[in-house]
Every structure is written in C-alpha cells, then in structure tokens.
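Example 3.2
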Amino acid sequence: MNPNNNYAGIPDRYAQLEKAGVVLIPVPYDGTSTWGKGADRGPEAFLDASANMELYDIETDSEVYRQGIYLAPPITEDSSPEALVDAVHSTVKGYIKRNKFVTLFGGEHSLSIGSIRAFNECFEDLTVLQIDAHADLRKEYEGSACNHACAVHEAAQTTNLVQVGIRSMDAIEKTYMDQEKVFFAHEMATDDYWMDKVIDLLGDNVFITFDLDALDPSIMPSTGTPEPGGLFWYETLEFLRRVFEEKNVVGFDLVELCPNPANRAPDFLAAKLYYKMLTYKFSGEEAEEDEPADSGSVPGLATNFDDDDY
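Structure, written as tokens:
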C-alpha cells in the first residue's frame, strides 16, 4: 500500500512539483489495443508495485528519489485516440517548459505519439530510441493515425528514429522503415556489438519509448501482445546504462503493461525498470540528504518554441 499517495511512498518533501526534478505522468489508456486488453490498468499496478519496492539501488549506491519525483494527475482523456494524443502532447510540453525531466507510464503505445511530438518540439535534433517487439510504423490502423500500431510512424518522418528489438511487423511497414536504423531481434541474438552500433546511430538528445513487450515473455508475460525471443533483464540494463551515460536522455515513456492479478512479478519488473532508468539518468547527481534537487535548466532544451503551443 502507498501510505501518502506519492510515487513509491516517498516523503512529501521529495514529491512536490515545485522542487522535484522528475515528473511522472500516468496514462491509463487502452482505447486502440486489438488483442489482450488491460493496459489501462498498467499504471495502477506499476504504482502499487513501486510503493513496495526498495528505493536504495545497490548497483549505483544511490537513492534517486532524492532528486524529487512528482506524481502528476493521470491523463484520462478517452473520447478518441486523437484527443488522447493531444492531451498527452499538451501536458508533456507544459512540464518540459517548467524544466522538468518528464516521464510517462502507460497505457498502450498510442500515447507515445503525443509524448514524442512534445519532446520533438522542445529539443533540437531529437533521436527517438524505440525499444519494442513491434515496428509500430503503420500510417493508419483501424481508421486512425493515433492507433498503437502507428506509435512511431510520425517519429519516423520527423526525428532520427532508431528501433531495437523488433521481431513482429506487417509487410507494409517496410515502406516506412529505415532498415539501416532497425535492429531485429534475430540479428541481435548473434551480434556481440549491437549495443555499440545502436549508440553510434543516436544523436546527442535522445527520447526513449520502451514498450515492455520488447522483453522476453519469460520475464514479461504481462503485455497485450507478447512475442517470443525478446530482451532479458541484465542485457537490457547494460544497454540502457550505456545510453544514459553516453547520450543526453531528455525523457522517456514505458508502455503496454497489462497486469495479471495471478502473477505480480511483471508489475515489479516494470517498477524496477522505471526506477533503474531514473537512476542511470541521475547517477552521480544525487541530491543532498535533506532537500530534493531544485530543477534547473534541462540540457538540450530548445529556446525557439512558442509559449502558445501548449
């Protein structure tokens, strides 16, 4: 149980928007998924697991929550996929302009259309690093361009999109894909240097969209569309640690947790993964013992966007 309704039950002084360096936005949306339903329950399961997670990280000897993590009100717009994307876009952009490190937890992958759009408008020369089992490059699906199957179509047109872990796609998606920037799971399995190759393709400013079905279903069965042959825990952490160390990660989202009440382990994996990603972002920048970090300017933030845009 979460005794104070803060992220992970952290003390109030680390959970206030004014002083927090990090914003976490839950997006309990499952409006366009086409097989396993339940991603709208993902944020609640993630937050419940987070509240029962140890907050000391052994690997880095740190407690990243001391940077301050503000749990934002959830985005609950569900009148249409387009309205959801618009709500995510405007909300994310607002927090970025307050110099916060913005993160999201879904919900299904269509929410990333809005988050990527906001980050692309706020950061110069953005790279989108998609870690996913599915290509998600359709221009339109089931009558909407804001479907989970279209999650990175816009990013492929407007950003430097690098795709990692792909092992399921429709033939039409090849027409939108830059195969020089796609790392298929079956090739990664025999390539000892795939991490180096990915990092070489990333620009300085990176937004990560992490679909949990990128992970192997033996460790992450709780997704709407599990695919065999995915990433495992320690190789995922090694890769993420290197990305955070070598690039300026400007934000990230985690999507597609479809919780199963009979198996809570995937919920805890998602909670731990989120916390690890924050830990890698702020490793070496831990706040003082008694005060959360005061958010200053965000590295890489553009200065030419319009206040009226959000």
